[in-house]
Amino acid sequence: MAVPNPPTSRDVARLAGVSQTTVSYALTGRGTISAATRAHVLEVAASVGYRPNLAARSMRTRRTGRLAVVSGPTLDHQVRVLAGAGEVAAAAGYALETRTVDGTVEERTARVRELAAAGEHEGVLTLVPVLPDVLTDPAAPTGERPERTVVVAETTFDDHMRSVGDLADAGPVAEFVETLLAAGHRRFLHVAGSDQYASARARRDAYLAAVDRAAAGPATRDVVSLGVVGGTWSPEDARRAVHDLPSDAPPLAVVAANDLLAAGVLRGAAERGWSAPGDVVVTGWDAAEMGAYLTPSLTTVDVDFTEAGRRAMQRLVAAVRGEEPPPRGAAVARIVWRESTGPLPGHRPAR
Asked: Looking at the whole model, is its pTM more than 0.85?
């Protein structure tokens, strides 16, 4: 039998081999159906292009069927995060709306609090860092839908104001330092991004912590950090920072906060007659397409922003439905080693 256009919940029930009640439970997150049954119904609904009548649902259940995502004023990678979040929201039967906020962390937190208090959305996912007091308690009891709008953050701050979350994970910075140490490097420099960004602060802090650990180690006490320079996302500022280094800075390992800054470092090094990766080794972040075509090609961090968006929205949907949050899963960032990094000239690895 052909499926009507638009399809109804009755059509989804027939094709999935379940009752309409089960379809309703799967789409709203209510009831006691198994995760496998819910996934099967959602797959069938998506395959025939079924979308719930959100207005009718709201009248019956007092649920709006709407979720909001709060992003910053510059979208760049957030577009891919939104794509992943939208994919999960649509499969779960929710309409997704976006809001843009700017300002200090206190101002952003106030805007998110106002959005939640308006009651127009069942849940709010914020992609910009906010203070913990605006968030729904992750330890709240599950099994029942919350009465208030749920607020979940992709990135937030812990009690020590350190940014946490998939996109704030700066773990690869420590791996950069540790790997370059093992390759014989002892002089390091960090070219930082803008301090207004949680990601820049997290990478700076991870660099400082990694270098401090190395300097305290019995085999690497000769490690020296030339400090943290920069503080913008401008490759020109990174180029100038290299020109400001003393002439005896090489051999030097430079950890840049993103690929544009790393490109500025490479340019500045070339202008000073320093070879890469001979005199200077450089790492970036973001896996910008141009990085693979630089000379030398750039070692970087590839972040799966779409998967980060999926995970964040899965946490929000689970919280809205009163379900257990999904496990965090593997890190969304991985290092891509290329030509801009290598061993210290003359270094012999330990055996």
From this structure: no
